[in-house]
Amino acid sequence: MNEHNTSGVGKKRAPLYEALLAYRDSKQRSFHVPGHKNGQVYHQWMNQSEGTEDALQKGIVDHTETGDILGREQRRQEENVKEGEQTVFSADYSLKDTDQSRHVVPVRAYLDMMEMDVTEITGTDDLHHPEGVIKEAQDLASDCFGAEESFFLVGGSTAGNLSLLLTICDEPGSIVLVQRNVHKSVIHGLMLAGARAVFLEPWVDPESGLAVMPSIETIQAAVQRYPEAKGVFVTLPNYYGMGADLTPIAEVCHEAGMPLLVDEAHGAHYGQHPELPVSALSCGADGVVQSTHKMLAAFTMGAMLHIQGPRLNRPLLRQRLAMVQSSSPSYPVMASLDLSRRLLHVHGADAFTAGLAAVKALKRGLAELPRFQLLQPADSLQQEPAYGNENPAALPGRQGYTAQDPFKVVIYDDTGVLSGYGLQQQLEACGCVPEMSDERYVVLLFSLGSTLQDAEHVLQALRHINVAYKLEHSLESTAPVRTASQTQTDPPIYVSTWNNIEDRERLSEPVAFSLQPIIERDTIVVPIEDCAGYRSAEMVIPYPPGIPLVYPGERISSKIAERIRILRDGGAKFQGISDHMYQKIKVMKPES
């Protein structure tokens, strides 16, 4: 930690944000980028078009009257919900009336932000060579999150993952031990580095069927077989908020002289409240990437990279960060990171009180709706999984899933009537937009910004969905119903966008990655139903969460082909597939 940042006065500061406020208030003339000149361009055009001094306010009024249609509609529907009625929300946020669109102008908040949208000028410091307010803000962040050094990221956790891999892979062909179901940015980092990945199969929770992280046994076997590996890269928590203590894995890595790198994109809040899981840094991880915008209070794309210990080449890391991040970073995004940190420094654990209260209110309400069950660690995890003997990667070391992020409320229809996709659609029709869903589960993401009203809105929606089901299905229905007890004993038979695992060895052979493109004339397009056995010519990425199912050059197994088809038919969205209808996939021509 940085000892000079531990004073109460220092923690209350937001040096970068304060510098932007001072710039705004100085009213200096801009003879530098950006071209909007503190938003001045919009003021000029609105004054010219309207021909009056109060054109800005009039334009905003016009915009409010047209652009706040959704807000008025939502308020009306919330009132109906309170009265026991239910209305259907639309997910189309566009203005249908072209005449309305002609009157769209920047709202006041947007123009206010433009006054703080600056570049590297005197007093605003430089992200790639920080000496002033950015350095001070990053030092405060390292104190807040328990790191030796912290770096602001304006390209999301993607920038952090890329820079870490480009740092440890200091020569072509470097071997990295990588959890199989990592975010696509990790794969892109391996490609940029020209690295070889030894993929580690994650342990699968037998209750939910969801992959968590590689077991301690798998990590031990990997570092013993590949002592020359440059490091170990894992993801924790997973997209569903599932995790466990990383300390044993960090110890194994360090004993082998390897750094442990953690994609903790969904755990920026970890360790900040007694009811939250511990952070990867506190478990001994050497490099940790956190999406501050996901679970804390920064703008989208605002993230941080935290490091500690002697195992990472910090000068090289700074160089890599300068390579993968823009030379014109967004100051509003960086200021939001500064403010998000200050919120935790000033309020501490109390910052999460309201959000946790909302989660507890939701859980109390769910107890009265037994149809909708929660994903959470089970005592049965202390026993060997039923199918663990067939798949060594499934052995959890009895620590595979011991922590659940309370802010990731993962629900499912215990009757089996609604899939996760179907439940998400019905929730959205009631005005509740979940984070994601798969064939079985729906992820409801709460945070320190959530309220009791949010919890009540979800509960009202679930009550409505439950009542509608009872009206449509009589008690004499012969349709099969999945009970809670069956859920606990039956093997999971659904498909998750998070899992990309098969019955493979727990360690793969080294898989080479490069930037060499696939030659178009060597490819053909086949229906997804017929793609098994071919080598893929494109990356297949269900999104969210962005975990590749297939890499370019990888042979498509029958199980993966079936998984792609099931996800597609269930309504999943994909990145990487050139056919936007998801009917066909590009593969390599069969070798003659």
UniProtKB/TrEMBL annotation:
<dbReference type="InterPro" id="IPR015424">
    <property type="entry name" value="PyrdxlP-dep_Trfase"/>
</dbReference>
<keyword id="KW-0456">Lyase</keyword>
<comment type="similarity">
    <text>Belongs to the Orn/Lys/Arg decarboxylase class-I family.</text>
</comment>
<feature type="domain" description="Orn/Lys/Arg decarboxylase C-terminal">
    <location>
        <begin position="516"/>
        <end position="578"/>
    </location>
</feature>
<protein>
    <submittedName>
        <fullName>Arginine/lysine/ornithine decarboxylase</fullName>
    </submittedName>
</protein>
<dbReference type="InterPro" id="IPR052357">
    <property type="entry name" value="Orn_Lys_Arg_decarboxylase-I"/>
</dbReference>
<keyword id="KW-0210">Decarboxylase</keyword>
<dbReference type="Pfam" id="PF01276">
    <property type="entry name" value="OKR_DC_1"/>
</dbReference>
<dbReference type="InterPro" id="IPR008286">
    <property type="entry name" value="Prn/Lys/Arg_de-COase_C"/>
</dbReference>
<keyword id="KW-0663">Pyridoxal phosphate</keyword>
<feature type="domain" description="Orn/Lys/Arg decarboxylases family 1 pyridoxal-P attachment site">
    <location>
        <begin position="113"/>
        <end position="451"/>
    </location>
</feature>
<dbReference type="InterPro" id="IPR000310">
    <property type="entry name" value="Orn/Lys/Arg_deCO2ase_major_dom"/>
</dbReference>
<dbReference type="InterPro" id="IPR015421">
    <property type="entry name" value="PyrdxlP-dep_Trfase_major"/>
</dbReference>
<dbReference type="InterPro" id="IPR036633">
    <property type="entry name" value="Prn/Lys/Arg_de-COase_C_sf"/>
</dbReference>
<dbReference type="GO" id="GO:0016831">
    <property type="term" value="F:carboxy-lyase activity"/>
</dbReference>
<dbReference type="Pfam" id="PF03711">
    <property type="entry name" value="OKR_DC_1_C"/>
</dbReference>
